[in-house]
Amino acid sequence: MGNQVDKLTHLSYDNVPTADPNGFDTEDELGPRIGVSYIFSADDDEQEERIDGPDKDQNEEEKQYDNCDELECVVYYRDESVYEKNLKLSDMSTYSTENLLNKCIPGDLVEFVATGQYPHWVVYVGDFQVVHLHRAEIKNNFLTDASQGKRGRIVNGLYKFIALPPEVVVQNAMQQVGRRDRELYWRNSECFAAWCRFGKREFKIGGELRIGKQPYRLKMLFSEKKSHVLEFQSIDDLIMEKRRNDQIGRDAVTQELANHLNSTDAEMKDDFHQSVN
């Protein structure tokens, strides 16, 4: 498929294989349960508003953003944790764009968030400006414009990879400005921003060979004792699912998973009765 960016295709839990449908994992279990697959896509194009300035009502709602519906998670590459969102241990407070400008230094990754939307990631390059993937193009905008009125936070510490020097991060971002459509190597703003900061080809489309057992696992944390694990062949695919969870929210993910598990249990019972008869 090359670098072509196509429509998003997410296989719902009803359409994907389930290794063990018994329910949520206990905190001692880390085995994979459900695999989720994507076709090359660009989720930012599907949900984000244009950078023409948000309306006042939307802006007022986003000022009240509460992260209580965010789903905490951990990403593993084989047995190594490479990403962790822990709302209790990490500073996940959000700020207005004006306050963010006082906190950012060149090379920082910033995540803008709003309820019901995909999070939007940008690379701060200095002089109040950011570089980001937006609507199938790498753009250089002022941070205040790129935010679209959303609140933001610095997210350098979510990924546990070793960061490149700040000047290299900025250079990586600036060199891509103007790329668009088929010239793009990233499916969303998070993949692009993370590639700029860490330089890992895994964040690019097709950056990893999809051969053999899925080495990546997304452990979704619903409570201290309840979690669920999805497995993926690439971190690119995993990020797509993680971002989808952010967009629909913790409660919706919980309900979606519960519906799937209940449906699978019913199918197993029907199969059992048929085999007995």
In short:
This protein has eight helices and twelve strands. The chain has helices at residues 43-47, 56-63, 97-103, 143-146, 166-175, 189-198, 235-248, 250-276, and strands at residues 9-10, 34-35, 38-39, 72-77, 80-85, 109-113, 120-126, 129-133, 138-142, 151-154, 216-221, 227-232.
Main β sheet profile: 5 strands, mixed
Number of helices: 8
Ranges where pLDDT stays below 50 over 5 or more residues in a row are: 1-34, 46-62, 271-277
Number of strands: 12
Tell me, rounded to a whole number, the average pLDDT.
Answer: 80
> In percent, how helical is the residue content?
25-40%
The dominant shape is globular
Integer tally of domains: 1
- SSE topology string: EEEHHEEHEEEEHEHHEEHH
Distance between termini? 48 Å
Strand content: 15-25%
Secondary-structure content class: alpha+beta
Q: Specify the CATH class.
A: Alpha Beta
**Radius of gyration from the CA trace?**
19 Å
Q: Mind telling me the CATH superfamily name?
A: endopeptidase domain like (from Nostoc punctiforme)
Instruction: Give the strand line-up of the largest sheet.
Output: 2-12-11-4-5
CATH topology: endopeptidase fold (from Nostoc punctiforme)
**Per CATH, which architecture?**
Alpha-Beta Complex
Biased composition (Basic and acidic residues): 50-65
Protein name: Protein FAM84B-like
Domain LRAT: 110-205
Pfam family, one: LRAT
